[in-house]
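Morning F.,

Quick status update on the modeling queue. The single chain you submitted on Monday has been processed. Sequence for confirmation:
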Amino acid sequence: MSKVIVITGLADGMGRYVAEMLAAKGYSIAGFDVDEKGIDSLKKELKKISNADVKHHLVALDITNRKGIIKFRDEVLKKYEKIDVVLSNVGIGFFGPFEEVDLEKALKCLEINIIGAMSIFQAFIPHMRKNREGKLIAMSSIVGQVPFPFESIYTASKFGIEGWIYALKYELDPFGIKFAIIAPAQVSTSFAAKIHKLPPKDSEYLERVKRFIAKDNEMIKDAPTPEFAAKKIVKVIEKKNPKLFNQIEFQSVVFYWLNKLSPRWFRDFLVLTIMDIRKK
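Structure tokens below.
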């Protein structure tokens, strides 16, 4: 039987490209997404590019539906008996000055980005622990280590993901389970455009937010494509012993090392200057 890869958030973007690339290599894909139309079209696409003996299992499901995740887990294990990799790819962005943030909406972001990843991993950990093997891969972001202003909620969710993975690794290392975090800086998708919203006209943050959005949009033009990012993710999935922390593109590598090696004042200066939000 081909290796089985579980992927959440695979109806569009990087997740979809990863699923298609792996299916073309002969892997079986099991996954879900809240986008029902995207799931339906992906089913047809995977059927076209897969070998006749390779079976996929795709369903429409919300990552916050924990009972649904357990049902999905049971269906997948019944169908395949053995799972090799779980890739947690579901995530939403969140943008705005923290003072003006709707905390109920922020809670939803944290639930999807952190608890969602925890839910899918927790569902499959018992299976991997018993088998003494398996790979758990979580999508993070450069903001998981390099915080960005006006993205404080999203930043908190990615710091949360990375802290949780580092702690979880200690718990599961004795059972042969491998871990990887993938942390791109930016990918040229509509992800940022969907969350960019200007504060009210009387907001003290308005002008700086305008400059931030303009700079972010400018940077996205030169960002890697989802296909490029997906190829990098597939390489991590296929590695027998992947690195714990993995980056997609040169920009994130530079940011990461500057963040590690530079004094605090220089890191602050760099972020504020790059994003054009120093006080004027």
